[in-house]
Amino acid sequence: MKIAVVGSYGAGLTMRVPKAPAAGETVSGGLFDSGAGGKGSNQAIGAARLGAEVSLLTAVGDDEFGSSARELWRREGVGAEHVVTAGAPTMVGFILVEPSGENRIAIAPGALDELDAAAVESFRAEIASADILVVSMEIPEEAVVAALRAGRASGTRTLLNPAPARPLPEECWPLIDVLTPNQTEAPVLLGLDEEHGLGDEELARALHERTGGTVVITRGGEGALVAQASGITGVPPHPARTVVDTTGAGDSFTAAFAVALAEGQPVDQAVEFAAVAGSHTVSIAGVVPALPTRAQLNALIGNAS
């Protein structure tokens, strides 16, 4: 089971605050922590912990954050031979987390701006040999499009995790086999404004019509909606024992979903497996420390049955 990931790496600088500051306000009493982040790296590590052979394409700077990233991937068993060393600094994300677990994130892309179609071309053999290609959108549009094209050309199943969301170029839609937006990202992909008035099922149907593939809209505590040619089905949530930090939930879900699909699980069953992974992740502070192993997920699934 092999997964190729094209996405971001960044250092996450996290502060846990009593409340998020308003404009012009200073809030004291925060607790600071730093660690590895970036959607592509998180998803690659998450998939590797669940037993997949993973190759990652991203870009980092020639700096301390970049060196730490390469050491992390070595420890986690993620193939990073094709990772680009850029002239700009490694991406940094500043994360504010409130007591409820809700978060606000600001990002300085740095090295990721240098991830281009040429870098994707150097990764083409990894894409071609994978069971599934996972692409996320913290990277330049050029790299997103090139990766999806490479996946389609090689016959590798493509999964686009459209985060952070932006309207997609028309050429992207037919290149996507599986699309995994959340409730906020779905209307953005369609170019809709905040007053669009569409429900989740209507959004799922519209996205399915655009791609012709599988669409999974994640809905947090409400579970997920799955749109396929056979219709729309709901997948119930897997309640978290407690919510500490929601930062890595989407990446954990995406990694587990990709692993389950690569193993040949039916889509609805794969979504259920991914929901357990997301539930585990929100119960633990941080992102990488919260990404589950296969044994941890099997234990949770066993306890729920």
From TrEMBL:
State where substrate binds: 38-42, 138, 251
Q: Where does ATP bind?
A: 182, 218-223, 250-251
Segment forming the signal sequence: none
**EC number assigned by the record:** 2.7.1.15
Which keywords does this chain's UniProt record carry? Answer: ATP-binding, Carbohydrate metabolism, Cytoplasm, Kinase, Magnesium, Metal-binding, Nucleotide-binding, Potassium, Transferase
The UniProt catalytic activity note for this protein reads: D-ribose + ATP = D-ribose 5-phosphate + ADP + H(+)
In the record's cofactor note, how is the cofactor described as bound? Requires a divalent cation, most likely magnesium in vivo, as an electrophilic catalyst to aid phosphoryl group transfer. It is the chelate of the metal and the nucleotide that is the actual substrate.
Residue ranges of domain Carbohydrate kinase PfkB in the record:
3-293
Kindly provide the name given to this protein in its UniProt entry: Ribokinase
Q: Which organism is it from?
A: Streptomyces halstedii
